Amino acid sequence: MTAERPGRAWIRPLRLWCGLILFAYLLTHFSNHALGLISLRAMEVGRVWFLALWRNPVGETLLFGALLVHWLLALWLLYRRRTLRMPVWEAMQIIFGLAVPPLLVSHIVGTRLANAMYGTEDLYTRIVLFLWVLDPWNFYRQTALFVVAWSHGCMGLHFWLRFRGWYPRFFPLILSAFVLVPVLGYLGFAEAGREVSTLAREPGFVQRLMVETRTPSPAQRATLQRVRDGLGYSTWALLLLTLLARGVRGYLSPRRAMVRVSYPDGRSVAVPVGSTVLEASRSSGIPHASVCGGRGRCSTCRIRVSGDPALPPPSPQELRVLQRVGAPPNVRLACQLRPSRDLAVTPLIAVAASPGATHASSAAHHGQEREIAVLFADLRGFTRLAEHKLPYDVVFFLNRYFEAVGGAIAEAGGIANQYTGDGVMALFGVESGAETACRQALRAAAGMVDRVQGFSGSFGAELESPLRIGVGIHTGTVVVGEMGYGETRYLTAVGDTVHVASRLEALTKEYQCELVVSEQVLARAGLAGADYPRHELTVRNREAPLRIAVVAEARGLAAQIPADHARAEG
């Protein structure tokens, strides 16, 4: 995909809203078809409500306006592309979307235009008769149309929503809906077809239906056919003109101003001014990461620009992404940067090409933005303890310790994803909501304290003093994904929330307590009114100070979690 200049930043949001309107129409249309599983009469009753929603001045303006705008903007974006190299899924989505209007013309003319011009009633009985009984070939064409349109809409929704934190949790349900809606619609139409086939064998049924629905006369049908052909040829002509314009531009491009993009391996690419760096990479087959397909919704295509070239300022969309990842001034998004002079770039995220990277396209590999709770814990006095033990004894001790705290984390529903020295990091809510995550993290903290005390007692006189543990918990939005190389990959989280949780754990030494927790965690856990000493903490990259609670005994706080929550998660 290509970047939009600041003055054209409205194009993609407009296409998105138009697409959502069209998807809503398809959803209601398929749902109306599905009523055929009940009866043909149920479909006709549902059609009344369907027409009340869409066949009125507002509904029709939105529907046909969205169809026209969505398609014309797609042609415009296709023309502005500097290269047609793209991932397969992106190509399929574009092809399906461009094919919808040419395939849809016949259906629009036969229903809405016939109704507007000659008062023809497009009852389900009449439509099913024509498509199922009198013209089965047209039925197959209509089936192909709805499969193409529905697939295009589902792909668009998926790639729009896949970076939302809640989407992975609901994806199985959403995928089921993506499949079931058209299947139920087809089955309902087929059942109605069998019912109409039976009615059609009754003497005089077809003739009465034609009269009652005011079927166009031969002369009127000829007029409708001319309109259909004109609209159909127009859509194909616009598509061909777009492709022709691309070809002419490509032919003339050597005479236009060119820029050269250089890469660290010595390769360089010359592209016309106006191309993005990502398009430059794709046009020459240079691997370049781009999880969102070049839409400026992620930072995986980011590059470091060498030297001090004059660069166009980032668009508001690009600026938001760069600020989110804390990028320095010389880092830009390759899908959004359109250089006006030669420059050297270094892609900052390599494209996995090894056999171990077979799941490179998975959500876990690329990462998903989610709101979770992060817990850090550290064993107090471990360094002094380890100084007086043999190395093998230290390994045995640490394994027993990690077994204790890891068991408490797993029992509470969390994931212990990092063990470093005597510290542990755990994630809660990777597959659930933030409220559940915070309650799980608080119960895990209490369980860890209990298990460490039991573990400490098992060593008896070997310890100068009982073992103590400090825990910090914070909640917020992070990027969760698999990191590492080859076989050493593990699930972890990255973001300011992680750094804050680590700092809260360090504060347990200063406050001589078992747990330091942010007020957000208490509020999400249903413990906003818990009576514990409060402090304000200044955190880097935050304008407002962070309110924290100092908890001397973690078990006392965990015991206050409402019993209904505990039962629901137990």
Could you characterize what this model shows?
By secondary structure, this protein is α+β, with helices and mostly antiparallel strands. It folds into 3 domains: 6-248, Up-down Bundle (3 helical TM bundles of succinate and fumarate reductases), CATH 1.20.1300; 258-347, Roll (Ubiquitin-like (UB roll)); 363-569, Nucleotide cyclase, GGDEF domain (Alpha-Beta Plaits, 2-Layer Sandwich). It is 55% helix and 15% strand. Strands 6, 7, 8, 9, 10, 11, 12 and 13 form an 8-stranded mixed β-sheet that branches. Strands 2-1-5-3-4 form a 5-stranded mixed β-sheet, with helices on one face. Helix 14 packs antiparallel against helix 15. The longest helix is centred in the middle third of the chain and has 35 residues, at 218-252. The protein is globular, with a radius of gyration of 31 Å.
CATH topology of the largest domain: 3 helical TM bundles of succinate and fumarate reductases
Main beta sheet: strand number and arrangement?
Answer: 8 strands, mixed
Describe the global form.
globular
Q: How far do the termini sit from each other?
A: 46 Å
User: Approximately how much beta-strand content do the residues carry?
Assistant: 5-15%
Query: Residue ranges: pLDDT <50 for 5 or more in a row?
Result: 1-7, 352-365, 564-570
Helix-and-strand structural type: alpha+beta
Report the count of strand segments. Answer: 13
